[in-house]
Design brief:
single chain; 171 residues; mainly alpha; 7 helices; 0% strand
Length: 171
């Protein structure tokens, strides 16, 4: 089995894991769309850059952070990580397969929400550079939390701490 086939298999596994786990599906897709879409129609929030900062930090911590920490810690608890290593999956392939879905969800939301809130951004390349950097930081922070915690409960609690810090930083 080639590296590309193993990576495609891991991505298939992540996709089915996301579709089967309704809590993760709600955290990654339901909260950003279900909460901030109705709020974006309130006139006092439209066009406010501060509200966009708050929204994006919250979405990054939910889509990038919680997704990664819950998924990795659950795989550790169920000993799926050991099975994947025995099947020949390398560390690089495993990390890439974990990062792809949260990264796509986060970047998609950072592209959609400025239009939803009707914020005019004068410098899109700088905005995208900062958004991608922030997304990667959230992913790596929560990946390290998930790798160093013993179970899913600890990973969720520490991930919640990062979410609270992210919400305060926007202010």
């Amino acid at each position: 089995m080639t590296k590309l086939d193993r990576l495609k298999s891991l991505l298939w596994l992540r996709w089915h894991y996301l579709m089967a786990n309704k809590v993760l599906l709600y955290l990654c897709i339901g909260i950003p769309i279900g909460y901030f879409l109705p709020v974006s129609f309130i006139p006092q929030y439209q066009g406010k850059l501060l509200f966009l900062n708050f929204v994006l930090n919250f979405i990054y911590s939910m889509t990038s952070g919680c997704f990664v920490s819950i998924m990795v810690s659950e795989e550790k608890e169920k000993k799926n990580l050991r099975t994947l290593i025995l099947a020949g999956v390398t560390l690089k392939e495993y990390i890439i397969s974990i990062i792809i879905f949260p990264f796509i969800l986060s970047i998609g939301s950072c592209l959609i929400f400025p239009f939803m809130i009707r914020v005019s951004l004068p410098n899109w390349p700088l905005y995208l550079f900062i958004a991608i950097g922030t997304c990667v930081i959230f992913i790596l922070a929560n990946l390290s939390i998930a790798l160093f915690t013993k179970n899913q409960t600890q990973a969720t609690l520490f991930g919640f701490g990062i979410t609270m810090i992210a919400l305060v930083l926007a202010m």
